[in-house]
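Priority: medium. Attachment 1 of 2:
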């Protein structure tokens, strides 16, 4: 039997960009009767229902289904959509993404060829404004546009490539076993909380599933101008450091620790501090900022580790 695909998109009050995304999905070269699009509206007050309704009426397009989830939180919304999917493969993307026409062809072909259970695709940026002079590719992950190159490779916890919600796919059999996204993690209005994709990735690996990075499965992700400011990067990385520290308590590594922190992170922090000094003297704005915000990430990790340690000590009294 030919494999079928369900594309899942969560959206909240972003009708204009969602319309562009659905338009791009309508131009995919995958057979129309072998995929569906499930859009979950996470409590929107704009024209999101009308945008989805317009696509539902398009005679030549794929099946588009509208699901409503009033409880705030992207992870909750995605999990609501997962109760409705029908495909053999579930492909995740965002409401501000434009997939290449061959996106689903590449996803299904790679999973069939490699026998992998899940997949991370390649993400390229659509710049909403010219990148500032302090921007460097080392920071692209903060903007959910981590271009991991043109070579297919296996995924591992230490491999440097992690699936993220803008472009990943999972076999339905694996999804049914491990469940959806962790609902205590992920985006909420007014916060920069992350970690839901990272936790999902670790859960898949711990369950014995194999992942692949497929560079031919390409999407382009909008980078809005309001994220191209240094304060956003500092705040995002600090919060991500806290989120990763929480995850490592649930998925510990065998690394040796100092004050509850893996020793390799202390070494990297020293290297980043020295890199900041060198880049300052060299007047290299890109390297200086990249190293400085890595230290912001480390301070978030330290904060979360110290907080958890204090709570554990208080609980033993």
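Attachment 2 of 2:
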């Amino acid at each position: 039997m030919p494999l079928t695909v369900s594309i899942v998109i969560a959206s909240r009050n972003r009708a204009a960009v969602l319309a562009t995304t659905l338009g791009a999905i309508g131009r995919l070269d995958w057979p129309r009767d072998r995929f569906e699009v499930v859009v979950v509206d996470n409590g929107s007050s704009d024209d999101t229902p009308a945008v989805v309704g317009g696509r539902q009426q398009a005679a030549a397009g794929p099946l588009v289904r509208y699901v409503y989830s009033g409880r705030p939180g992207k992870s909750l919304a995605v999990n609501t959509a997962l109760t409705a999917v029908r495909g053999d493969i579930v492909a995740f993307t965002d409401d501000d993404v434009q997939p290449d026409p061959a996106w689903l062809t590449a996803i299904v072909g790679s999973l069939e060829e490699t026998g992998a259970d899940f997949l991370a695709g390649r993400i390229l940026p659509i710049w909403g404004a010219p990148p500032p002079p302090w921007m460097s590719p080392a920071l692209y992950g903060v903007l959910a546009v981590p271009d991991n190159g043109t070579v297919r490779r296996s995924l591992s916890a230490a491999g440097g490539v992690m699936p993220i919600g803008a472009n990943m796919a999972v076999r339905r059999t694996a999804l049914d076993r491990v469940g959806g996204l962790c609902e205590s993690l992920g985006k909420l209005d007014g916060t920069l909380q992350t970690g839901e994709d990272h936790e999902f990735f670790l859960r898949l690996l711990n369950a014995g599933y194999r992942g692949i990075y497929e560079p031919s499965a390409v999407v382009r992700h909008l980078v809005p101008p309001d994220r191209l400011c240094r304060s956003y990067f500092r705040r995002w990385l600090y919060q991500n450091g806290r989120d990763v520290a929480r995850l490592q308590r649930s998925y510990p590594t065998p690394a040796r620790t100092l004050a509850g922190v893996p020793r390799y992170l202390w070494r990297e922090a020293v290297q980043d501090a020295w890199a900041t000094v060198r880049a300052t003297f060299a007047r290299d704005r890109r390297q200086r900022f990249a190293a400085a915000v890595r230290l912001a990430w480390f301070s978030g990790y330290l904060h979360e580790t110290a907080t958890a340690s204090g709570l554990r000590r208080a609980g033993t009294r």
